[in-house]
Amino acid sequence: MIFNRQRVTMDGPPGRRRRLPVVAAAAVVTAALAAGCSDSSNAARTSLPQIPAQQVIGATEGRLNLVAWTGYAEDGSTDPKVDWVTPFERATGCKVTTKVADTSDSMVALMKTGRYDGVSASGDASVRLIYGGDVAPVNTSLLSNYPDIADFLKEQPYNSVGGQMYGVPHGYGANYLMYRKDKLPRPPTSWDVVFERNSPAAGNITAYDSPIYIADAALYLRTRRPELKITDPYELTEEQFDAAVDLLRQMRTNIGQYWHSYADSVQSFTIGDSHAGTTWQVIASLAKAEGAPVETVLPAEGATGWSDTWMISSRARHPNCMYRWMNWITTPKVQSQVAQWFGQAAANPKACRYTKKGFCAEYKVGDAAFYKKIAFWKTPVTACGDSRGDNCVDYSRWTQAWAEIKG
């Protein structure tokens, strides 16, 4: 398996969800909070912008500007053998330019500029984009591969509103618990190895560096403290939110690493600095390839996860090229290429015809039972989604709390 998955773009070679320089990162996050987090989070899902869906795919415009995670739009510049962009350009005449984003907050900020036609948004960005009026609903009748997409990925809280899809599912994965077998000879079965002060991995725990990680603490507390009555780790009242934040503050001294880039996590587990913590399947595979004695487990409490969606800008200058891209990226063969390169479950199970033996079983492609065990990222908003009304804590508060947790 190839370790370096960075792609050089017009904006340089950033890594997947890698940390930006401090000044740049502050600017991006500030812009996202000012323009996207507060407005869409506080919308309480009552002020959905009325944007029409495209009715036909017309002539191509010759260009396509994307915002994407690293590894989602490979053109052969990273590895000559890994290229699904160039064949797309030849087939459609749409010249692709990709801006790699390293966080969901930066994706929201970039899409608000109106310079991009589409984005590969995770669930912690997509709701903000929908209610911010930055993306348009999609006409699924124009998506030739849509019937083949796993049904359990459709009409989810992070990619639809009222049965109207706002994109096409791309791929998904769980945030597993990974541990080093030489450091933790008794295989952990619970997230308590991460969240309890007396953890045998104390001082060598790793956690994903994002406000959305607060949901991981809430998911653990859902079982650990049933009196809190947490039903959804992204829909938290003040009491529930405070409990999750307090737990993360208490475990701060046990953290050895907060990671953005999966390369950093791979290295930390490989050299032995990290003994346990949240991970993606691709990190585990790469760490094993480097000789690290690691294993992953889906703990008894379940796990959070991510499901990414290709969404079209409400101000797309090249909408016909974007619809052609959504059709291209969901074909079985291209889905298999992306899934194996990046390390994720393909949204289109027909991709398994083209993957290496055992890949689809390892990544749970098309496994509805597995999907139901995962609490997939979605943007926290004030609307609790139940009888509690608009009394949940929105994403802007999550962002503020995360900064305080890390100190």
Give short descriptive properties of this protein.
5-stranded mixed sheet; D-Maltodextrin-Binding Protein, domain 2; 8-stranded mixed sheet; alpha/beta; 2 domains; 33% helix; disordered N terminus; 407 residues
Q: What can you see in these coordinates?
A:
- It is a single chain.
- The protein has 14 helices and 15 strands.
- By secondary structure, the chain is an alpha/beta fold.
- It folds into two domains: 22-173 and 307-363, D-Maltodextrin-Binding Protein, domain 2; 174-304 and 382-406, D-Maltodextrin-Binding Protein, domain 2 (3-Layer(aba) Sandwich), CATH 3.40.190.
- Strands 1, 2, 3, 4, 7, 13, 14 and 15 form an eight-stranded mixed β-sheet that branches. Strands 10-9-11-8-12 form a five-stranded mixed β-sheet, with helices on one face.
- Helix 2 links the parallel strand 1 and strand 2.
- Helix 3 runs parallel beside helix 4 (123-131).
- The longest helix is centred in the first third of the chain and has 20 residues, at 22-41.
- It is globular, with a radius of gyration of 20 Å.
- Mean pLDDT is 89; it is low at 1-45.
Summarize this entry quickly.
This protein is an alpha/beta fold and 407 residues long. The protein has helices at 22-41, 85-92, 104-111, 123-131, 192-195, 214-224, 238-250, 262-271, 281-289, 319-329, 332-342, 359-362, 368-372, 395-406; strands spanning 63-68, 95-100, 118-121, 135-136, 160-161, 164-165, 168-174, 176-180, 205-208, 255-259, 276-279, 294-297, 303-313, 345-346, 374-376.
CATH class of the largest domain: Alpha Beta
CATH fold type of the largest domain:
D-Maltodextrin-Binding Protein, domain 2
- Could you report the average pLDDT, rounded to the nearest whole number? 89
Helix content: 25-40%
Structural class category: alpha/beta
CATH superfamily of the largest domain: Periplasmic binding protein-like II
- Measured between the Cα atoms of the first and last residue, the distance is 36 Å
CATH architect. name of the largest domain: 3-Layer(aba) Sandwich
Could you tell me the radius of gyration in angstroms? Answer: 20 Å
How would you spell out the order of helices and strands? HEHEHEHEEEEEHEHHEHEHEEHHEHHEH
Oligomer classification: single chain
Low-confidence stretches: 1-45
Number of H/I helices: 14
How much strand? 15-25%
Can you count the beta strands?
Answer: 15
**How many separate domains make up the residues?**
2
Envelope shape: globular
What's the story with the biggest beta sheet?
8 strands, mixed
